[in-house]
């Protein structure tokens, strides 16, 4: 009887954890695109078990990037950041999964590549902070804001990968 109750609680917990999936915004910056790293970055997120729900290849305007980086507008590096980010195409993406925002940030590594651990995207693929190849949302709230800025709702594809049962418990 007790075992059945424990199993029932565990089953409910597992389902709650699986349903607590969230979305994050990840963008390969112009240096990552120019260096041909888009596929390697996608492979890392797919290998982890996250689900790609939106992606595009675009060359963003300075006006759009000012909105994206509005929280950094008062910083001295802001004008250079916006100019750099508008200097070439970028690949914005939306990834979905359990704790994808926090885990995604860990996968990216520290903003400054010299502080990034080996095995992270920035730790393995970057040298300088001004060419750190990738942007990732830092919270669920900023992810939602960034997703809404870059994608229309119709561009977010709801789908079920065949391997999902091998990534998540019940």
UniProtKB/TrEMBL annotation:
Record carries keyword Transmembrane helix: no
Active site as annotated: 135 (pros-phosphohistidine intermediate)
UniProt-annotated binding residues for ATP: 29, 77, 105, 111, 122, 132
Reactions catalysed, as given in the entry: a 2'-deoxyribonucleoside 5'-diphosphate + ATP = a 2'-deoxyribonucleoside 5'-triphosphate + ADP
Signal peptide: 1-18
Cofactor: Mg(2+)
Nucleoside diphosphate kinase-like domain mapped to chain residues: 21-158
Keywords: ATP-binding, Kinase, Nucleotide-binding, Signal, Transferase
Enzyme nomenclature, EC number: 2.7.4.6
RNA-binding in keyword set: no
Gene3D superfamilies (alphabetical): Nucleoside diphosphate kinase-like domain
Record-stated family: Belongs to the NDK family.
NCBIfam families attached to this UniProt entry: PRK00668.1
Protein's recorded name: Nucleoside diphosphate kinase
Species this protein is from: Dryococelus australis
Taxonomic path: Eukaryota, Metazoa, Ecdysozoa, Arthropoda, Hexapoda
